[in-house]
């Protein structure tokens, strides 16, 4: 293992969120910090903060371009868990207890599709991993119900695909990716792919 700072795979470390206990960074937001992460079509890094529903747009040099929150009182809320770049200057974020967020990367305007649209109650931790298919539709694993969810970007409606065992029991879904042919691949909690 190379000493810290000598690993050629690490290009830059951005210490923005600080240390909660020492309060060493006045920009520190709360306890859990960044979870969602993606790079948009213009090369900007987007970071979603779990416990404040705050989103940051950062350039390739580590400069903070903008930030906003999807909550009026962004303290101790469940925010971004995963993010993915979509088509037409859109970034998507799943907020497990609240729904799916569509962010316009040009002006930071956003739309939240509430969790009830996906058949989840506000107390359900529904969404886990997020991906986009070749048409720009959003796919998410719902690890509570064992459903693979597809959100159609044209109709703004979801469809559901249960992932079951040979005996019909639903699986707890975790990882997700989509191949170039549009096939969705998901991992389950204990049984594989």
> What is the multimeric organization of the chains shown?
single chain
Structural class: mainly beta
Strand content: 35-45%
How many angstroms does the end-to-end distance come to? 31 Å
Gross morphology: globular
In short:
Helices cover 0% and strands 39% of the residues. With 193 residues, it is an all-beta fold.
Structure overview:
There is one protein chain. The chain is mainly beta. It is 0% helix and 39% strand. The protein is built from no helices and 14 strands. The protein has strands spanning 34-39, 45-49, 54-58, 64-69, 82-85, 90-95, 99-104, 110-114, 127-132, 138-142, 147-151, 158-162, 173-178, 184-188. The strands form four sheets. It has a four-stranded antiparallel β-sheet with strand order 1-2-3-4, with no helix packed on it. It has a four-stranded antiparallel β-sheet with strand order 5-6-7-8, with no helix packed on it. The chain has a four-stranded antiparallel β-sheet with strand order 9-10-11-12, with no helix packed on it. It is globular, with a radius of gyration of 18 Å. It starts with 33 loop residues before the first strand and ends in a 5-residue tail after the last strand. Mean pLDDT is 80; it is low at 18-30.
């Amino acid at each position: 293992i190379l000493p810290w700072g000598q690993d050629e795979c690490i290009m830059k470390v951005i210490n923005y969120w600080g240390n909660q206990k020492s309060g060493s960074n006045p920009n520190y937001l709360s306890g859990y910090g960044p979870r969602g992460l993606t790079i948009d079509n213009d090369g900007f890094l987007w970071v979603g903060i779990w416990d404040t529903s705050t989103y940051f747009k950062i350039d390739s040099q580590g400069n903070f371009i903008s930030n906003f929150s999807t909550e009026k009182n962004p303290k101790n809320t469940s925010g971004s868990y995963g993010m993915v770049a979509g088509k037409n200057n859109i970034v998507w974020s799943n907020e497990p207890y609240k729904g799916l967020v569509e962010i316009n990367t040009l002006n930071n305007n956003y739309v939240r599709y509430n969790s009830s649209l996906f058949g989840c109650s506000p107390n359900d931790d529904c969404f886990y991993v997020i991906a986009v298919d070749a048409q720009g539709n959003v796919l998410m694993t719902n690890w509570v119900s064992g459903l693979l969810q597809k959100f159609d970007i044209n109709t703004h409606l979801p469809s559901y695909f249960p992932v079951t065992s040979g005996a019909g029991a639903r699986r707890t879904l975790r990882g997700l990716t989509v191949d170039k042919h549009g096939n969705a691949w998901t991992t389950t909690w204990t049984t594989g792919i």
